[in-house]
Amino acid sequence: MTLDQLLTFLAVARLGSFTRAAEEIGRTQPAVSQQIRQLEESLGAKLFEKLGKRVYLTEAGRVLKEGAEELRAQASRLREAVSQVAKGERGRVRIGASTTPGIYLLPRILGAFRRRYPAVETSLSIENTFAIERKIKLNELDLGFVGAHPAKQELVVVPLGNDELVPVAAPSYLGGRRRRLEAEELAEHPFVARERGSGTRQAIDAWASRKGVSLNVVMELNNPEAVKMAVAEGLGVSILPRCAVAPELRQRRLVPLPIKDCRIARFLSVIYHQGKHLAPAASALVDLSRKLIF
Amino acid sequence: MTLDQLLTFLAVARLGSFTRAAEEIGRTQPAVSQQIRQLEESLGAKLFEKLGKRVYLTEAGRVLKEGAEELRAQASRLREAVSQVAKGERGRVRIGASTTPGIYLLPRILGAFRRRYPAVETSLSIENTFAIERKIKLNELDLGFVGAHPAKQELVVVPLGNDELVPVAAPSYLGGRRRRLEAEELAEHPFVARERGSGTRQAIDAWASRKGVSLNVVMELNNPEAVKMAVAEGLGVSILPRCAVAPELRQRRLVPLPIKDCRIARFLSVIYHQGKHLAPAASALVDLSRKLIF
DNA sequence: CATTTCGATAGATTATTTTTATGGCCTGCC
DNA sequence: GGCAGGCCATAAAAATAATCTATCGAAATG
To answer: Which residues from chain B sit within 8 angstroms of residue A139, using beta carbons?
Structure first.
């Protein structure tokens, strides 16, 4: 039983004639005869009977006709569904993001994406960079938004833009002072940090060791919002992604802490598996991200 | 897109390997590769991606997998349904019967048939012999139970048995008399007859003209039950199929009217279209009918 | 009763599928 | 890090399947 045979069968059943069915499907009549014979053999049932001139469906043929029509409709729906996915009109994109991009960037990006591709489902799981890399390698995620250069052989890295890290403090913490600190002076201030292993923390540690500063970490938090709260409460200073503190800086709930030569720029990237054929929807999301960042 | 390609696709999707899928379906690996490639081309969508060693479904592949499984299940159900019809376990038999067999024979036959083949639908339409023959020729009926020899070239006639016609009267009509009538004497009695065109009437008329008797028809009714009622009420005598009057004879609501040389035997037959491939269920019904008649 | 229509059949031909043989790529193991 | 082994892709050959041409026979038609 093949789909082709079923289509031939349906044409014969509908037209009540082998010859006319043959014309309709652009074959010769013997080809139709053989297709029907094979279908009958494979099903073990006679499908037509020739009473006089006309051909009639047998009872088995009537049952097959019902079912074959349903099958054809379903096959056609399936073809359409796959085609929609292939064209990016439908589908699912599984996104992973590390904390900073996940919280401060992706909501905006995904909002725009959703307006553009309303029928494409997106799932976002926020985890640390390491976990995201692992899941991408296992094909459990399609795209990863991370702030560290993985530079692994198996991953494609699409640069999105710089994510500047800015030192901040509570307005009351600094008081009236406006003096620019030397990098070493940071050691004198209590420092509220993200947990070790976070991209933000890694970038800060790398900068600090480059400058020969040892930070006076008084608190480690695995959530940038919690870090902001702690700093706003005057527990200490911190260095946070600009996109994370932009609203607080505007509302003056936090203020910049000027430090000499403090240009910590983390590179935000989208990563995906080497050799992966990005679905159109995923590809569109990457494009959209690049536009929205700049 | 063929069913074969979908089955191959499902095997690959399930096993995550072209080679293992090939083993499972008994082909070589390149055959699987080509099937998948053709499927991808016909759908216009990449279905698998090779990331490292394993092959993974793309989003389009995931959609196809869902749908293909449904399609497979439906195709398999369809195959089963057709097979059941072909084996006579299921199906529909469209039966036509003329009045006498339809009322007095078929309820019993169909009851027995239903117990034997509970999943086979039967439809019974009671019409006159002419209409039944026409519908059988138009393939609107599968089997016809009639009491006249159609002997048309295009019909197969399966004899079931004799349907004896017995003269009857109301007990009160005869009074104490028990004398056997000569055929000619029947003309002296009011006769309650079936309508012209009914098989019973035709048989009686044929017998009467053979005997040179002209019946004194005082009433024509198109329903044998109505004839019985009329006779029971003493409106006259009639000649009715034995199977139609058996209960009344037993209950003495009617009594036989002995007439010399009155052996009117109508032959009951099943008819179907010449060249018709009887479905197993229909065939079984014919067999059952022959058993139950004798 | 000849004629036409329609499906079945057989043999030739074409198209498709499968296999065989091989190459490239990645992985994992020493 | 080199090498073997596993896995998929590819191309040509072989096998299989589908289609076409030609023709037959049965049934309906005028």
So the answer is: 49, 51, 54, 56
Please say if the pLDDT value at position A291 is more than 70: yes
pLDDT of residue A130: 79
Q: Count other C-beta atoms under 10 Å from residue B7's C-beta.
A: 17
Residue A203 has pLDDT above 70, yes or no: yes
The structure's pTM equals 0.79
Question: Chain B residues with CB inside 8 Å of A82's CB?
Answer: 43, 45, 60, 63-64, 67
Calculate the dihedral angle through the C-alpha atoms of A212, A215, A221, A227, rounding to the nearest 10 degrees.
-100
Label residue A132 exposed, middle or buried (CB < 10 Å: 0-12, 13-18, 19+): buried
CB pairs under 8 A between A and B: 134
CA A269 from centroid of its chain's CA atoms: 14
Distance between CA atoms of B207 and B204, rounded to whole angstroms?
5
How do strand A216-221 and strand A190-194 relate by DSSP bridges? Answer: parallel
Q: Name the closest nucleotide to B48, judged by C1' and CA.
A: D8
Tally Cβ neighbours within 10 Å of residue A190. 17
> Which H or E run includes B61?
helix B59-87
C-alpha–C-alpha distance, residues B116 and A103, integer Å:
70
Burial of A27: CB neighbours in 10 Å, binned 0-12, 13-18, 19+: middle
CB-strand contact A51/C, under 7 Å:
no
At B64-105, the pLDDT tens digits run 999 999 999 999 999 999 999 998 888 889 999 998 899 998
pLDDT of res. A68: 95
What is the pLDDT at residue B177? 67
Tokens of B151: 């002997």
Strand C proximal to A30 Cβ, under 7 A: yes
Regions in chain B scoring below 70 on pLDDT: 148-153, 176-178, 294
User: Of A15, A17, A27, A16, which is closest to residue A4 (Cα–Cα)?
Assistant: A27
Q: How do strand B48-51 and strand A190-194 relate by DSSP bridges?
A: unpaired
